[in-house]
Amino acid sequence: METRMSDASGIRFVPLHAEHLPLLHTWLTRPHAAQWWQPTPSIEELHADYIAVGGEPNATRAYLAFEHDTPIGFIQCYVVMGSGGGWWEEETDPGARGIDQFLADETRLSQGLGRRMIRAFVERLFQDPAVTVVQTDPSPHNLRAIRCYRAAGFQDVGEVMTPDGPALLMRCHRS
């Protein structure tokens, strides 16, 4: 997924580059994000997780989301099957993609922006005919995220145990 112009949602996604890492790190230290993204990674850890080394793309693709010219959040996607680290070991669908996201500015929460960002991103993922389903796994205690994902078209599958602890598995199928 490359940089794209804004669609009707007014949201576009720019692949994460090394020069974005200080901004991403700052966002991750904000209380509304840090509560769910613990422990807060260092800039060096973010670089290792998201920036391609030696021309090899990382398994997780990370993006900054922009509303017009303003950076508003972070979103990442990955192929679920074979993601490693104890994640989704039972998954057999090579077309399943996972996403995680957060908004940068706490004052923009609960206003529909997260829903718009997720919908726009999922729409782009489904432009790839190989993608069959998009899933996410918020903490069962993260009620704001759960409401947001439901509003964006995700349905509850059920509670699962992940390497990070209990999570609510949610999925969005191609319409």
Short description:
Helix content is 25%, strand content 29%. The protein has helices at 21-29, 31-34, 43-50, 113-125, 143-151, and strands spanning 11-15, 61-67, 70-79, 96-103, 133-136, 155-162, 165-173.
Give the overall form.
globular
Can you say what the CATH homologous superfamily is?
Answer: Gcn5-related N-acetyltransferase (GNAT)
Q: Name the poorly predicted regions.
A: 1-6
Radius of gyration: 15 Å
**CATH architecture name:** 3-Layer(aba) Sandwich
Q: How large is the share of residues in beta strands?
A: 25-35%
Tally of helical runs: 5
Strand order of the largest sheet: 1-2-3-4-5-7-6
The number of E-state strands comes to 7
CATH class category name? Alpha Beta
Helix content: 10-25%
From the N-terminal CA to the C-terminal CA, the straight-line distance is 20 Å
Number of structural units classed as domains:
1
Q: Which whole number gives the mean pLDDT?
A: 86
Quickly give the structural class: alpha+beta
How is the biggest beta sheet arranged? Answer: 7 strands, mixed
Topology-level CATH name: Aminopeptidase
Describe the structure.
A seven-stranded mixed sheet has the order 1-2-3-4-5-7-6, covered by helices on one side. It has helices spanning 21-29, 31-34, 43-50, 113-125, 143-151, and strands spanning 11-15, 61-67, 70-79, 96-103, 133-136, 155-162, 165-173. The chain starts with 10 loop residues before the first strand and ends with a strand. Helices cover 25% and strands 29% of the residues. The protein is an alpha+beta fold. Mean pLDDT is 86; it is low at 1-6. It has a single domain (11-173), classed as 3-Layer(aba) Sandwich (Aminopeptidase).
